[in-house]
Specification:
By secondary structure, this protein is an alpha/beta fold. The protein contains 3 helices and 38 strands. It folds into 2 domains: about 80 residues, 3-Layer(aba) Sandwich (Udp-n-acetylmuramoylalanyl-d-glutamate--2,6- Diaminopimelate Ligase, Chain: A, domain 1); about 210 residues, 3 Solenoid (UDP N-Acetylglucosamine Acyltransferase, domain 1). It is about 20% helix and about 30% strand.
Length: about 350
């Protein structure tokens, strides 16, 4: 693709030879002639002069590069779109594979593709253009919107609802039973039936082996635009807001509400029945045990203000030294107190 055409498709301002042929995309240090690269992180500024790329995506006010340039407000976003332009999309043909099992009353939209060994239960509805890869199980009464992408080994339990353009990576389970038990008088536990619904709204993506549980009453809901990484656990009755980002191994306990545009680093744990305010950022491995107001940045366990946590973590490393100093001061104080007591005894005699 000529650089001029690429600039138009990415909505970038071209500086340089628009007739250059671009064959692919690569990182700034790995790029070769014919590649497009990008500079979004200032720490790579020093290697820009050494890049062998034929063209580079730069900020509007970025320093000049030794090759053709595409100027844009967000080079990283433009690069992500360029990757899509140069990556061929492999889409299975529409239709139902002969080795799939589809209930007689299931309704499939136009252009739907159903792979081998897919099981589709009674009353299922699947929207136009959705792709279901092999070995997927879709329970009775489930509703799936248009242009969804459901990868192999996904399990959608009964009465789950997916919006449009939802992406479920391999091994996702939506609608598994929530963890609900009542202790009996004899110490055993009785299961609380988990029979309510799970709703996944438009443009949500769930990473591989992520699970979203159904509650006994009410619903579990993940709102539009949220992107969730691999191995994340969303408990029963949780509400996740719009455009939330969760990295791998996050765990959300039941009945917690996550506000819009929240960001959780990897392995963040959130207790149950809490409220996490809009725009909160939790650093990786934070343990959230209390509700958090909107706009907070938190870290540590139990999670506190991120700046306070950084100051505290400096002290943590010095605790053995500080303990030793305190013990020495206590010993000296005891010695001084003893001497003072003896001196008073001498005077009184």
């Amino acid at each position: 693709m000529k650089l001029r055409e690429l600039a138009e498709r990415l909505d970038c301002r071209l500086e340089g030879d628009g007739e250059i042929e671009i064959a692919g995309v690569a990182g700034i240090q790995d790029a070769r002639p014919g590649d497009l690269t990008f500079l979004a992180n200032p720490k790579y500024q020093s290697v820009l002069s050494e890049t062998r790329a034929s063209a580079v995506l730069l900020r509007e006010d970025g320093a000049a590069a030794p090759c053709a340039m595409l100027r844009t407000r967000d080079p990283y976003l433009a690069f992500a779109r360029a990757v899509g332009l140069f990556t061929p999309v492999s889409r299975p043909s529409p239709g139902v594979h002969s080795m799939a099992a589809v209930a007689a009353d299931a309704a499939l939209g136009s252009g739907v593709s159903i792979g081998a060994f897919v099981s589709i239960g009674e009353g299922v509805r699947i929207g136009d253009g959705t792709i279901v890869y092999p070995n997927v199980t879709i329970g009775p009464g489930t509703r799936i919107g248009a242009d969804c992408l459901i990868h192999s080994n996904v399990s959608l339990r009964e009465r789950v609802t997916l919006g449009d353009r939802v992406v479920l990576q391999n091994g996702v389970v939506v609608g598994g039973d929530g963890y609900g038990f009542v202790r009996r008088g004899d110490g055993t536990h009785e299961k609380i039936p988990q029979v309510a619904s799970v709703v996944i709204e438009d443009d949500v993506e769930l990473g591989a082996n992520t699970t979203v549980d159904r509650p006994a009453v009410g619903e579990t809901r993940i709102k539009a635009g949220t992107k969730i990484d691999n191995l994340v656990m969303i408990g029963h009755g949780v509400i996740v807001g719009r455009n939330v980002l969760m990295a791998a191994q996050v765990g959300i306990a039941g009945s917690t509400e996550i506000g819009d545009e929240v960001m959780f680093g990897g392995q963040v744990g959130v207790g149950g029945h809490l409220s996490i305010g809009r725009g909160t950022v939790a650093v990786g491995q934070s343990g959230i045990t209390n509700s958090v107001p909107a706009g907070s940045t938190i870290a540590g366990y139990p999670a506190i203000d991120g700046r306070e946590w950084r100051r505290a973590s400096v002290i943590f490393r010095r605790l053995p030294e500080l303990k030793k100093r305190i013990e020495e001061l206590e010993a000296r104080l005891a010695e001084l107190t003893s001497r003072t007591g003896m001196a008073r005894g001498d005077r009184s005699s």
